[in-house]
Amino acid sequence: MATEAAPEWLEKGDNAWQLAAAALVGLQSVPGLVILYGGIVKKKWAVNSAFMALYAFAATMVCWCLWGFRMASPAHTRPRAATLLFFQFVFAAITLILVAGSLLGRMNFKAWMLFVPLWLTFSYTVGAFSVWSPNGFLFKAGVMDFAGGFVIHLSSGVAGFTAAFWVGPRTAKDREAFPPNNILLTLAGAGLLWMGWTGFNGGAPYAANIDASVAVVNTHLCTATSLLVWLILDSFVFGRPSAVGAVNGMITGLVCITPAAGLVQGWAAMLMGLLSGSVPWFTMMVLHKRCRILKHVDDTLAILHTHGVAGSLGGILTGILAEPRLCRLFFGDDPRYVGLAYAIRGGRAHAGLRQMAVQLAGIAFILALNVAVTSVVCLLVGVLVPLRLSDEQLEAGDDAIHGEDAYAVWGDGETYEQSVHGSRRYQMTANPMSSKVDDII
Fold first, then answer.
1. Crossing angle for the helix pair 243-257 and 183-202, nearest 10 degrees?
2. Which residues lie below 8 Å from residue 313, measured CB to CB, with a gap of 6+?
3. Distances from the Cα of 307 to the Cαs of 68, 148, 414, in angstroms?
4. Which pTM was predicted?
């Protein structure tokens, strides 16, 4: 029975799934990436790294409600606008948090506070409008980006790398040794990220339908395959399996399948997992060490590789492997949407080649947009406040920036430095472990 709160036009099932999917994506950021960032960095940067993610989530929510949603989605008065606003907000928020991954361990927090609303306004909204809005030029051209391979992942990878160039590197000591302070927390955050992707890709059809189910299964199939491939490569090349490496393989799989999740068959999702577990591995582990510009720019968590490279790879593979029937489920009855492989088999090679050209054009536009806008934003913020922390703050980390430490390892909330064991007056020089403890802290 229709009521004012539930009118006849409201599909309750679709609306419920959309809200649930949005909540899952939100959990990827808070607490997912907050936990992951806090655990994967050096101990002295744990609070700052987690806090950068938390701030970005909050600031994006306010900006998105005030102006971002209208800029990225002009038809904001359509039905279910409140649901769509929240769903699209969590995508915008996680994009900023991913950008932060390139800047951990040295960016001035006050500069980050300015960067977030500016980049959201002038970069993210433009990319989202161009690819996803019916009035966007890439949407009209027929670009296929099911859930954000271009808008979110390629954008964050390129923007993060560009911002890292302008902010400058971490200290030489941190670049040489930046061990995770808590790998178990890193894995916990990664688990939230993986499971939250059920809503990330499963919510893209804006309906609880067959395409959403296909997207969810393909997401997990590609991700599991990618993780295993990365793990095997680490074991074969470096002689041991790495938990952090497995997390990277997981992320590249999630990113690669995102533009294709509801558009490809299961075998194609596995193929994409094989490539997403190997191509970004090669660019990160081999090419990065040989390329001067990649070595020069300090991309803390290698967001360019895990999101920029994997997002581009997914966009290209979508143009090759998108299955026409699944494309009809998502895009409607439009013959333009077809992967190159199926187009050739159906005697429509020209349509497939056109789709590949559109996919490459989408990559080029997002890349150029983010290099240009991110550079301008960084230069503008740099005029107002320093982009990089002072040498003294870089040496001390969390305590100098926030007056807080991640772990109280001694009695009643005392940190090591404040205890008698950390005081120079009471140094236990006879203890052979003391120097090792000092190095760790």
1. 10
2. 256, 272, 275, 276, 279, 280
3. 23, 11, 39
4. 0.90
